[in-house]
């Protein structure tokens, strides 16, 4: 068995786990949850067939169900509270959680079991407790991971045992407190438990569960990865890391790289969102069997809907009586979502560790692609990954959406110390994995940016996988290399459009962006005490080179 039974070691775990055993709670199945979802007032049953429903024990004629969440259709990061950071507020939050559990247990509750992890190297049993009124979210959680049923339960019993207790997730979307208008998420990562209070969005349950699984993996010398990983032909696996909207899924799930792949370069997708790299055993493990993807590019009657299991925050239309179809393309609201099968392309549950890691950044000071030749700089550029937030993905003020933000390793769901991630990625790069940066946005000074089309990014990944890109040192940025043969591989205007200049204005722009990274990581070190100077020094050294060019003695 993969996890062990262990007595609770914290009041948080004791409260959350005990809630599952109340008289008002009973275990449920995917079949029951589907029936309950059909009766849920706000759920819409479409005319689209549910993809291969029998695998989940659902009726053969099951349909895609749609749930819409109201005014908030994205994650609310500001609701999150980490037990290890509570300090003097600890007792206040314990009282809040205790009262939340009490009030919940006076209503009918459902308990669903599932498995996180698709390889015998890492399979964790997980439990979700929610009210009957939240059946659709529970159904989606079971689909997103793997419900506790054959054949998955048999695989779990044969998996490697880890000295970890099961994951326990308590979610009550009906909870409210005037002091917490944005909801409240309490995370005890040491005890593998989480309480999600007052939040309807399914992504809170998915990412909350993944947060605990990632943290468990790190404790067992794995690298926690919010990204995509694939193999291309016989080339080493390629992993891309980026927030939603960075091109992570577009690059990972592309089967032909805009027509640039050869017939023998078959793509095998492991996953486009969550995986672990086991440094001890050279295995990359996907954590989910399905995909939770945006539907902004899903057209009316899109053939890809064939692979859908479920949808959230999308519209419905009825062109003729009794025929109800999905209307996506973010017409109803931003961040429409679906859960769909990986059967839409060739896929596998695991592979070897990545041979190449790519930081996807939306930083206009950087050209479309760079290779990082210094291990320390590779970690620093990942720890200071700069991007822009995708519209609607997170519940943040609109004025924040256009701003450049830094999200270390593109993982806003990390709850273990950042310095631990830095150490794990350093181990990965020291073991031989190469590191690259790809800017998937635009290049150039503000107001003069030249767009970087998706097709170019895909071609770059193709040539990178083939090791066809020849590199030269970028003299103003020690540790970074830029293509020598860009025109040859990517078109005669590549250097004209994307070759970094030595103009003072551009160098000052590049320096300022480098300083943003240094400042961010320095604050992590000095204020949060969550960073080591050794991971900042390579950026400082590179900035000093630009300083000397701008201000020669």
- Overall number of domains: 3
Helix-strand category: alpha+beta
Q: How confident overall, as mean pLDDT?
A: 95
**CATH architecture level-2 label of the largest domain:** Alpha-Beta Complex
Discrete helix count: 14
Instruction: Classify the fold: give the CATH topology of the largest domain.
Output: Phosphoenolpyruvate Carboxykinase, domain 3
Measured by DSSP, the beta-strand proportion falls in 25-35%
Main CATH class of the largest domain:
Alpha Beta
- Uncertain stretches of 5 or more adjacent residues: none
How many extended strands? 30
Radius of gyration: 24 Å
Q: Percent helix among the residues?
A: 25-40%
Give the overall shape.
Answer: globular
Distance between the termini: 66 Å
Report the major sheet.
11 strands, mixed
Summarize the structure.
The strands form 6 sheets. Strands 11, 12, 13, 14, 15, 21, 22, 23, 26, 29 and 30 form an 11-stranded mixed sheet that branches. Strands 1, 4, 5, 6, 7, 8, 9 and 10 form an 8-stranded mixed sheet that branches. With 553 residues, this protein is of the alpha+beta class.
């Amino acid at each position: 068995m993969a996890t062990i039974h262990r007595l609770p070691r914290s009041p948080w775990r004791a409260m959350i786990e005990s809630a599952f055993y109340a008289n008002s709670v009973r275990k449920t199945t995917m079949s029951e949850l589907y029936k309950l979802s059909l009766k849920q007032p706000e759920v819409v049953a479409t005319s689209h067939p549910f993809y291969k429903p029998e695998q989940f024990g659902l009726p053969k004629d099951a349909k895609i169900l749609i749930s819409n969440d109201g005014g908030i259709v994205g994650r609310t990061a500001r609701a999150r509270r980490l037990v290890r950071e509570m300090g003097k507020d600890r007792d206040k939050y314990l009282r809040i959680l205790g009262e939340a559990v009490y009030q919940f247990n006076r209503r009918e509750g459902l308990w669903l079991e599932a498995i996180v992890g698709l390889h015998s190297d890492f399979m964790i049993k997980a439990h979700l407790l929610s009210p009957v009124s939240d059946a659709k979210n529970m159904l989606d959680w079971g689909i997103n991971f793997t419900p506790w049923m054959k054949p998955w339960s048999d695989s779990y019993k044969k998996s490697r045992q880890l000295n970890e207790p099961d994951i326990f997730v308590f979610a009550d979307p009906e909870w409210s407190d005037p002091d917490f208008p944005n909801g409240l998420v309490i995370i005890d990562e040491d005890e593998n438990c989480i309480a999600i209070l007052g939040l309807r969005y399914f992504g809170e349950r998915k990412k909350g569960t993944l947060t605990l699984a990632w943290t468990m993996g790190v404790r067992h010398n794995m690298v926690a990865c919010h990204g995509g990983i694939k193999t291309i032909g016989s080339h080493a696996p390629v992993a891309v890391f980026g927030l939603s909207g960075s091109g992570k899924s577009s690059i990972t799930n592309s089967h032909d790289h805009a027509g640039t792949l050869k017939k023998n370069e078959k793509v095998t997708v492991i996953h486009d969102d969550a995986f672990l790299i086991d440094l001890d055993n050279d295995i990359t493990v996907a954590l989910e069997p399905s995909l939770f993807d945006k539907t902004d590019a899903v057209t009316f009657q899109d053939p890809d809907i064939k692979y859908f299991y479920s949808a959230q925050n999308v519209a419905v239309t009825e062109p003729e009586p009794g025929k109800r179809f999905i209307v996506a393309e973010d017409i109803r609201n931003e961040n429409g979502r679906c859960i769909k099968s990986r059967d839409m392309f060739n896929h596998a549950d695991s592979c070897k560790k990545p041979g190449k890691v790519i930081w996807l950044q939306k930083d206009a000071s950087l050209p479309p692609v760079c290779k990082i030749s210094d291990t320390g700089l590779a970690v620093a550029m990942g720890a200071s990954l700069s991007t822009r937030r995708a519209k609607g993905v997170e519940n943040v003020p609109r004025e924040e959406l256009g701003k450049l933000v830094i999200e270390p390793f593109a993982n806003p769901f990390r709850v273990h110390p950042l310095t631990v991630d830095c150490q794990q990625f350093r181990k990965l790069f020291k073991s031989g994995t190469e590191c690259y940066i790809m800017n998937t946005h635009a290049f150039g000074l503000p107001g003069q940016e030249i767009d970087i089309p998706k097709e170019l990014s895909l071609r770059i990944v193709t040539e990178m996988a083939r090791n066809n890109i020849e590199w030269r040192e970028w003299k103003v940025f020690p540790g970074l290399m830029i293509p020598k043969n860009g025109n040859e591989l990517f078109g005669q205007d590549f250097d004209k459009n994307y070759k970094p200049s030595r103009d003072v204005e551009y160098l000052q722009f590049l320096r300022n962006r480098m300083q943003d990274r240094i400042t961010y990581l320095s604050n992590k070190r000095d204020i949060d005490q969550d960073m080591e100077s050794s991971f900042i020094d390579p950026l400082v050294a590179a900035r000093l080179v630009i300083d000397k060019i701008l201000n020669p003695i």
